[in-house]
């Protein structure tokens, strides 16, 4: 069951205020904030200013929580909200709110939108990553609970773990660890920045830096952990697909952390055949909170590379987790 994330963000942001209701004008606290000329409303649409183009730092940032339809209705009914200047941003990646279907790839949950906006305002990529980790943990627990409710009574958790481990052992020689670093165009279409892959059984790695479209800001690279001084690219998207088709083993079982990576690559014209969702597999084999990929891998002793983007880090993290699973640890 989807839940609002504004309360979660409020609990983790000491200077925030949470106001609940359908008539903001009834709140003296909101009236005081709305009258301040340094107050902005985080909401997309005509007239919204990109957060990177604001003339000055806002003193207050108002965020409307709820479904997109409910948020729009509240905005239409509230003169105070409509009078506020609006600020927006272009998400670097789709939402991880897997318990709710967003109306478009560029739509994020309230917590994800707040974390991204604050990082852009403060020019501090990753500063609010703890908010996202708690959010991801909440999503994982919700999904685990819903899967438990749907599981037929004739199947025990042990049966599910046995089947998942059997599939892992069968596919292990063919596992191809894949990580795609993408951002989003203003129209919501994915833009591939880097594609990395490695066979779990060993062999050469595939790494390809894709030439970005004109106008993509440097922050798109900094937010994904690239060394901004290393600007070399390997080619455009078409050349990347061609290089991939020559390199990728025909019997490969694509292995990604969650389903989003494979879905984005399909949208970019790559052919994904056999697919293993390592995060979903892990939730079956090791019941309980799955947590984030890198945090789980470093907890197992992984040393993740720095300065080369998120792709190589994710590949190494998945490899460490798979080895531990395969060894029965």
Q: Which range best describes the helical content: under 10%, 10-25%, 25-40%, 40-55%, 55-70% or over 70%?
A: 40-55%
Specify the CATH class of the largest domain.
Alpha Beta
> What share of the residues does DSSP label as strand, in percent?
5-15%
End-to-end distance? 32 Å
CATH topology of the largest domain: Nucleotidyltransferase, domain 5
The major β-sheet equals: 5 strands, mixed
Shape: globular
Please state the structural category. alpha/beta
Number of helices: 13
| Low-pLDDT sequence parts | 150-156
Order of H and E elements: HHEEEHHEHHHEEEHHEHEHHH
How many individual domains? 2
The CATH homology group name of the largest domain: Ribonuclease H-like superfamily/Ribonuclease H
Under the CATH scheme, the architecture of the largest domain is: 2-Layer Sandwich
Rg from Cα:
22 Å
Number of strands: 9
Give the overall pLDDT as a whole number.
Answer: 81
Describe the structure.
This protein is of the alpha/beta class and 329 residues long. The chain folds into 2 domains: 6-130, no CATH class; 154-326, 2-Layer Sandwich (Nucleotidyltransferase, domain 5), CATH 3.30.420.10. Helix content is 41%, strand content 14%. The protein contains 13 helices and 9 strands. It has helices at residues 6-12, 28-35, 68-77, 79-83, 110-121, 129-150, 157-171, 219-222, 237-247, 260-267, 278-285, 293-299, 310-326, and strands at 39-42, 49-50, 60-63, 86-88, 175-184, 190-199, 206-209, 253-256, 274-277. Strands 7-6-5-8-9 form a 5-stranded mixed β-sheet, with helices on both faces. The chain has a 4-stranded parallel β-sheet with strand order 2-4-1-3. The chain is globular. 29% of the residues are buried.
């Amino acid at each position: 069951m989807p839940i609002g994330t504004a309360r979660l963000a409020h609990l983790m942001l000491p200077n925030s205020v949470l106001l609940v209701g359908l008539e903001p004008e009834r709140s003296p606290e909101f009236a005081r904030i709305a009258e301040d000329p340094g107050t902005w409303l985080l909401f997309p649409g005509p007239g919204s200013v990109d957060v990177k183009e604001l003339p000055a730092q806002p003193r207050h940032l108002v965020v409307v929580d709820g479904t997109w339809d409910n948020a729009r209705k509240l905005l239409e009914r509230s003169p105070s909200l409509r009078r506020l200047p609006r600020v927006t941003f272009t998400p670097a990646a789709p939402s991880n709110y897997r318990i709710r279907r967003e109306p478009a790839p560029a739509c994020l949950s309230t917590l994800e939108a707040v974390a991204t906006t604050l990082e852009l305002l403060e020019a501090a990529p990753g500063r609010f990553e703890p908010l996202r980790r708690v959010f991801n943990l909440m999503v994982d627990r919700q999904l685990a609970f819903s899967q438990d409710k749907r599981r037929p009574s004739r199947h025990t958790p042990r049966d599910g773990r046995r089947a998942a481990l059997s599939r892992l052992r069968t596919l292990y020689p063919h596992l191809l660890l894949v990580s795609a670093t993408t951002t989003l165009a203003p129209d919501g279409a994915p833009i591939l920045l880097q594609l990395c892959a490695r066979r779990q059984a060993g062999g050469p790695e595939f790494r390809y830096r894709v030439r970005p479209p004109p106008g993509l800001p440097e922050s798109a690279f900094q937010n994904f952990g690239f060394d901004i001084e290393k600007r070399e690219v390997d080619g455009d998207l078409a050349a990347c697909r061609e290089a991939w088709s020559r390199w990728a083993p025909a019997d490969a079982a694509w292995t990604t952390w969650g389903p989003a990576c494979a879905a984005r690559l399909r949208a970019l014209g790559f052919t994904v055949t056999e697919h293993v969702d390592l995060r979903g597999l892990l939730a079956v084999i090791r019941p309980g909170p799955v947590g984030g990929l890198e945090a789980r891998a470093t907890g197992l002793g992984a040393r993740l590379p720095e300065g080369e983007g998120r792709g190589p880090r994710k590949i190494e993290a998945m490899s460490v987790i798979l080895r531990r699973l395969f060894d029965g640890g």
